[in-house]
Specification:
By secondary structure, this protein is α+β, with helices and mostly antiparallel strands. Helices cover 29% and strands 30% of the residues.
Length: 558
């Protein structure tokens, strides 16, 4: 897709005012999990906007004079196109940055914006941090992924781009659509998160992991965002996005985006902290939903239905609902997740006063440079207390005919789903064992190369794959129908899909396991396990307990 050329920008001098945030405080002192509305702002004159070129700005800004001129030019072009076509136009402006910790940026700015996302990928080492929404793409019911895909396809059909894109950063290109999908269609009145919530962020930052950034050091030094920590600088791209309607004022939108960049990037980090610990003396209560014995009875009913020929496998989940005496500290939980669960993808989505977060070892699908990657992660045993015990459990995992069958069902489904659009599909053999902090899994990577004439992108594969047999069951429709009638649990986004897509069909979506939904002092933690005909209720319950431990540790409620 060709990038439109920019016309020479008009002067930005204006008698209007530009909003900029007040001095910010250290977020470490605020344990609130609710994303606050935008903080009160001070009004600053804009005559001239940042001083004449070559002169110092009258106050610190995230964007300099030339940045703001270029941003305005991009938005004016989008406004002109919207008036010409009669439909909203996506404008996306970019500049390179050198920054430190993505988590530090997210921790501070999430309290000052109404929606945010943190994504740190285990697969390419990249990060995405995003704030605010330029446009929401909603979907409901069984067609929720298709609705989002159609809206996104229309939105990126003819965007206006400006600034200086940096394609040496993490995977993806240009503006992103980010968010997630629930495990199943649900009554929106009974769930804190919608069936589907994907949005174009008003501000997004994509960056490499520090190790990869060092190996791909730039030949010319990129500008450094003021106020960001200088520790372990990484190469990054800042991108500001907006949807311009025919009657929108591009100058006002430029001011709003510049103020958002100030809000998110201009802050002084506090002193480095050690791994956070839960507040001393914080009490909590925990309730299992359903109760342990009731859940084990559900296991017996499910295995009975399997033996009767209803389906081959079903994945049964349960919830641990925790109420604490003080609100949970979301950034601390994220840092504990990252430290205790290396090799996982850590994510956090703030929406409507709650946060869905997790550290998942499993991706649903990734698409990069027309190569499609999927992962079969099915079959679980605990870790051993000693190396010898650990090896015994691993051998049980590898030698179990039950687990191998469960795993093979998942892998075959992945191969079939990729085969519709890929010329070549391969699966690694034999499955390898992935060892996590509390459990170990059988894992098989499946990948294919998109056929030259295939228009399929990441959201097409999300629709085909979600939920896989590893999260729902097999055959899919029969297993999901039984769950809807018997599980009695609103999974929300647990076992759903969280991630991002770009306008070229690339993207990454994780399977949202090892996750929790936080709302102030309340947390809903989820875990599930795959059941086949000879599954033992006591063993399956113990497996779910092991899968809950990453989140109980992160929240300090062990």
């Amino acid at each position: 897709m060709a990038t439109p050329s920019l016309t020479a920008p008009q002067s930005l001098a204006s008698p209007d005012s530009l909003t900029a945030p007040r001095p910010l405080t250290d977020p470490a002192a605020d344990p609130a999990i609710t994303p606050a509305v935008a903080a009160p702002v001070a009004t600053l004159p804009l005559t001239p906007p940042l001083g004449a070129p070559g002169e110092p700005a009258p106050y610190d800004r995230a964007l300099d004079h030339r940045d703001l001129e270029s941003l305005l030019a991009t938005l004016r072009l989008a406004s002109d196109r919207a008036r010409h076509t009669g439909r909203p136009t996506l404008a996306s402006w970019a500049k390179p940055l050198s920054l430190g910790s993505a988590v530090d940026i997210w921790q501070r700015a999430r309290l000052l914006t109404t929606r945010s996302l943190l994504w740190q990928s285990a697969w390419d080492g990249g990060s995405v941090v995003a704030f605010g929404s330029a446009h929401d793409l909603d979907g409901h019911g069984a067609d929720r992924v298709a609705a989002v895909r159609a809206g996104w396809t229309e939105l990126v059909r003819d965007p206006v781009r400006g600034g200086a894109a940096d394609r040496s950063t993490a995977s993806g290109e240009g503006p992103l659509v980010i968010g997630g999908f629930a495990f199943a269609a649900a009554d929106p009145r009974g769930s804190r998160l919608p069936d589907a919530l994907m949005w174009v962020p008003a501000l997004q930052i994509r960056s490499l992991a520090p190790a990869r950034a060092a190996a791909e050091a730039p030949t010319a030094e990129a500008p450094t965002a003021q106020g960001l920590t200088a520790e372990a600088p990484t190469r990054a791209e800042l991108r500001l996005n907006a949807i311009l309607s025919p009657d929108d004022d591009p100058e006002q939108r430029a001011k709003e985006l510049a103020a958002l960049a100030d809000t998110c990037l201009l802050w002084e980090p506090g002193p480095a902290r050690d791994l956070p610990t839960p507040p001393a003396g914080r009490a909590h209560t925990a309730v299992e939903l359903p109760a342990a014995e009731d859940w084990k009875e559900l296991v017996r009913r499910a295995t009975g239905r399997i033996r009767a020929g209803g389906f081959e496998k079903v994945v049964l989940a349960r919830e641990l609902r925790v109420t604490a005496s003080t609100p949970f500290d979301v950034p601390d939980a994220v840092r504990r997740l990252r430290t205790a669960n290396p090799g996982t993808t850590v994510f956090a989505v703030d929406h409507d006063g709650c946060t869905f977060l997790g550290a998942t070892p499993e991706y649903l699908v990734r698409v990069e440079d027309r190569t499609v990657h999927a992962l079969g992660l099915a079959g679980t045993t605990p870790r051993g207390a000693t190396p010898e015990q650990d090896e015994v459990h691993e051998r049980e995992l590898v030698d179990s005919a039950k687990i191998q069958h469960e795993h093979d069902v998942v892998v075959q489904m992945l191969r079939d789903a990729l085969g519709d659009s890929c010329a070549d599909v391969d699966a690694e053999t034999p499955p390898r064992v992935v060892k996590l902090a509390n459990v170990q899994h059988l894992s098989t990577k499946v990948h294919g190369r998109l056929a030259e004439d295939s228009p399929a992108g990441i959201l097409d594969f999300v629709e085909r794959l979600h939920p896989t047999p590893a999260l729902g069951g097999h055959p899919r429709e029969a297993a999901l129908s039984w769950l809807a009638d018997n599980e009695g649990l609103d999974r929300s986004w647990y076992a759903g899909a969280v991630g991002w897509a770009d306008g070229t069909g690339q993207g990454q979506f994780a399977v949202a396991i090892r996750s929790a939904l936080l709302d102030g002092a309340t947390a809903s933690l989820y875990a599930g396990c795959g059941l086949v005909a000879d599954s033992d209720p006591e063993a399956e319950y113990a497996e779910t307990c092991a899968k809950l431990r990453p989140m109980t540790h992160a929240l300090g409620i062990e």
